[in-house]
Amino acid sequence: MPDQLSDAQPQFLTVGEGEAAREIAMLVRPAQAGNDAPALVWLSGYRSDMSGTKAVELDGLAAELGLACIRLDYSGHGLSGGSFGDGTISRWLEEALAVLRHVAPDRIILVGSSMGGWIALRLAQELARQGGVTLEGPKLAGMVLIAPAPDFTSELIEPNLKAKERKSLAERGYFEERSQYSPEPNIYTRALIEDGRKNRVLDGIIETGCPVHILQGMKDADVPHAHAMKLVEHLPADDVVLTFVRDGDHRLSRPGDIALLLSAVKGIIRSSTNRQMPVRAAEADKFA
Q1: Which UniProt keywords apply (predicted)?
Q2: Are 14 and 43 in contact, with CB atoms under 8 Å apart?
Q3: Integer Cα distance of 123 and 120 in angstroms
Q4: Residues 163, 147: contact at Cβ < 8 Å?
Q5: What angle do CA 234, 114, 46 make, to 5 degrees?
Q6: Digit-coded pLDDT (tens) for 155-203
Q7: Residue 2: per-residue pLDDT
């Protein structure tokens, strides 16, 4: 499937004020006329962007089905401005919320990969909170989470910090870790870790109010599959499907993995359409 960046021009949205202002890049595919199915919203992982394989495949599915699709690059990622070193969950959450307010879809399906899964869960909480106050904002129709990493700073990083890494955090404000996906090391800042504690979701019941499908590789070296099982325990009120990929790694970007992802998204679309209104058989077949 061709990279949709080749036939779509990014738009830019200014988020924040003064020194905190940054230009956030987004790619917005409009829905075909008359198609009122939920818009697909892609949320990337740490150091990933909206031109990655899974993001492009999701946009391709939207094009095939005539759906709207919204992709964005967090600040310090991809085409967006801002410094990566300034990034925190709160900051990237603010940007995702700003993009959704700007595009203003009626209903959305959040598709979050790794850290994007954490941001998706926080988005669900913020949309519920803000909607309860203003009765405005998009309605969450479903979520697909790929190797989700909620609370990864406090659950997966902090407990495993080595002495030299703690020293680097204290003295330099960050530490580096070799990346198996890039020649450049991963950088984790003290601000990211401290802010992560404020955005924890695995400290109580998470109520998304929508169906959730989780895809998790059992050979994921970055986010253990036990982490996905722990997340399910915090979603007791939702319709949750957890699919394990026995030989899957963290990226889940192989053709078979992509097929699973697109099938999961179609399933959420189908269930959201059925809840919204009865559909003609021909329309339902598109999502089968």
Answers
A1: Hydrolase, Transit peptide
A2: no
A3: 5
A4: no
A5: 130
A6: 999 999 999 999 999 999 999 988 877 788 889 999 999 999 999 999 9
A7: 40
Neighbouring CB atoms inside 10 A of 161's CB total 15
Q: Side chain identity at 39, as an amino acid letter? A: A
Whether the pLDDT of residue 7 is over 70: the answer is: no
Evaluate if residue 4 carries a pLDDT over 90.
no
**Closest C-alpha among 183, 185, 254, 186 to residue 217:** 254
Do the Cβ atoms of 190 and 198 come closer than 8 Å?
A: no
pLDDT at 184: 84
Cα–Cα distance between 145 and 240 in angstroms, integer?
11
Alpha carbon distances (Å) from 272 to 100, 165, 212 = 19, 45, 11
Beta bridge partners of 72: 26
Lowest-confidence region among 85-94, 174-183, 185-194, 250-259: 174-183
Per the CB < 8 A criterion, the answer to whether 247 and 260 are in contact is: no
Instruction: Give the C-alpha distances (Å, rounded to integers) separating 105 from 59, 131, 210, 265.
Output: 16, 14, 17, 17
> Of 138, 12, 146, which is closest to residue 75 (Cα–Cα)?
12
pLDDT tens digits along 205-245 = 999 999 999 999 999 999 999 999 999 999 999 999 999 99
The whole-angstrom separation of Cα 262 and Cα 127 is 25
**Total-model pTM:** 0.91
Helices (H), the chain: 53-65, 89-103, 115-134, 152, 163-172, 190-198, 225-233, 255-276, 281-286
Q: In what helix (H) or strand (E) does residue 175 lie, and over which residues does it extend? A: strand 174-177
